[in-house]
Structure formats: structure tokens, C-alpha cells
Amino acid sequence: MNSDSTILKETCAICLENVDVLKMFSVDYCFHRFCFSCVKKNVEVQLRQGIVPKCPFEGCRSDLEIDSCTKLLTPELIEIMTQCIKEARVPFTERIYCPNSRCSTLMSKCEALEFSEMKCKNARESGARKCIKCCESFCVNCKVPWHENMSCYDYKSSHIYSCSKDAALDSLAKKEGWRQCKKCSHMIELAVGCFHMTCRCGYEFCYTCGMEWREKKPTCTCPRWDECYIIRN
Q1: What residues have CB less than 8 Å from 36, skipping those under 6 apart?
Q2: Smallest Cα–Cα separation from 170: which of 200, 197, 137, 144?
Q3: How far apart are CA 19 and CA 79, in angstroms?
Q4: Whole-number Å distance between alpha carbons of 113 and 111
Q5: Is 152 among the catalytic positions?
Q6: Which one of the listed residues 194, 206, 220, 228 is annotated catalytic?
Q7: Which of the chain's ends, N or C, has fewer CB atoms near its CB within 10 Å?
Q8: Within a 10 A sphere around the Cβ of 1, how many other Cβ atoms?
Q9: Gap between the Cα atoms of 52 and 89, Å rounded
Q10: How does DSSP assign the chain, residue by residue?
Q11: What is the rounded CA–CA span in Å between residue 200 and residue 114?
């Protein structure tokens, strides 16, 4: 620590600036310290990538706590961080998102089944589920609002589906070239970057053909990128 008159200062390990000690952030558990500005920028980048924020110190894997970050982040980023932490606690093969566009709550398959069995006697056999937050019924198999007395195939072939928001979204997705995750049915648009996509549920796939990536390697022979998505004018 350096002393400048009566103000104690400390050097940030990232920007190397001498900062007022009262504006230094201490990471819980590992106690590495950085200035507020650098931590905020680092956390924002990690959250935009869908990653639970960790200590910026190279090689350190300590998670940042939400309570410690409230003084640094906007309410929007706090909400994103809360969602990232919740998602990290649920294995991606167990994640379900409510198909209600006004809700989109994350649940585990087990959590959704337990809640649904309290409301519906044959939930396990039928595939009917209820969202733990908004209580809307949906199909766990095709991830759409519940279609009673109708199979998933019959529902998607029906007039009901053709007039639904899901059909409108599918039509728009085809027009815009968006991809739908095969695991959770979430729609994904590539704005910039390579064709290796990682969905919010953790499923990795090729944006061009939809084939799965395994162990960070593609299972298809599609190009990895296109310059029009890499170079922005």
C-alpha cells in the first residue's frame, strides 16, 4: 500500500493504477483485490458470455458472490448473474425452461415433475408439466403449451399450432436463419462470431447444420466460421 497525504492507496493487479483502498474490491474466499472498475468490466464480459463470474486473478477459480457485486452492477446484470448461478447448479441435461414467453423460468426436470404431480395425477405418464412460477401447463417433450388429448406430432400438425405464437416464431426463425437448440428448444440467432454455439442450457452445436459438438469438437464437416460474421465494418 502507498500513502498519498491521508488517503491510502493500493495498486490494482489488472490496470496497475493506484486506487483509493475504499474503491478496491476483495473477492470472497481467495481475497484477491482489484479496483471496482476492473472487476465490473470483467464481470460484465463473463455474464454476457453466460459464465458465472469468477475471480479475475489468473488461475483462480473462486466464484464471485452476488451480495458482494450489488454495489458494482446494474439491476439488469444482477438479474443475469442470478440466472447464471441458478443455471450452473442444474446439470444442462436436467434443465427445462417454461415456454411461456412472459415467464421463461428455469426448472430442473425433477423439480418440474414433483411440482406437477401435486397438481396433475398422471403428469409422469402424460408429459404434462406445470411451471413452478407462473403455473402454466406445458409439454415436457416438445416444450410448448400443454396440448391435452393430442400427441406432440398431432399438435404440431394441427390448425391450433399453425395459428399459435410458436408457429409464428418457427416461421420467423426459418426466414432469418435462426437455429433451435435440440436440447431445450431455445431459439438462437448468430449475430457475430464463429459457428460453434453454446446454448443457455449448455448444449453445444454447429450453427450451420445443427449437429452436436462433443468435447469441444464438431461432429460435422461444416466450416467453423464465415468472414461476414467475424469482420464487422
Answers
A1: 23, 24, 25, 71, 72
A2: 144
A3: 28
A4: 6
A5: no
A6: 194
A7: C
A8: 9
A9: 10
A10: -EEETTEEEEE-TTT--EEEGGGEEE-TTT--EEEHHHHHHHHHHHHHTT---B-SSTT--PBPPHHHHTTTS-HHHHHHHHHHHHHHHS-GGGEEE---TTT--EEEHHHHHHHHHTT-TTHHHH-EEE-TTT--EEETTT-SB--TTS-HHHHHTSHHHHTSHHHHHHHHHHHHT-EE-TTT--EE---SS-SEEE-TTS-EEETTT-PBEETTEESS---S--HHHH---
A11: 23
CB neighbour burial string for 148-168, b if at least 16 within 10 angstroms, e if fewer: eeeeeeebbeeeebeebebbe
Distance CA 233, CA 222 (A): 25
pTM, two decimals, is 0.58
Output the CA angle 88-94-95, nearest 5 degrees: 65
The answer to whether residues 222 and 195 touch, using CB atoms and an 8 Å cutoff, is yes
pLDDT tens, the chain, 233 aa long: 444 557 789 999 999 999 999 999 999 989 999 999 999 999 988 887 778 899 999 999 999 999 999 988 999 889 889 988 888 888 877 888 898 878 888 899 999 999 999 988 888 989 999 999 999 999 999 888 888 888 888 877 766 655 566 666 667 667 777 888 877 777 788 877 788 888 867 788 998 888 888 887 889 999 888 776 655 54
In contact, 53 and 43? CB cutoff 8 Å? yes
* Residue 89 amino acid letter: R
Q: Which residue has the cell 402454466?
A: 136
Please report where in the chains the cell 436436467 appears, as a residue.
94
Q: Which three cell numbers stand for residue 135?
A: 403455473
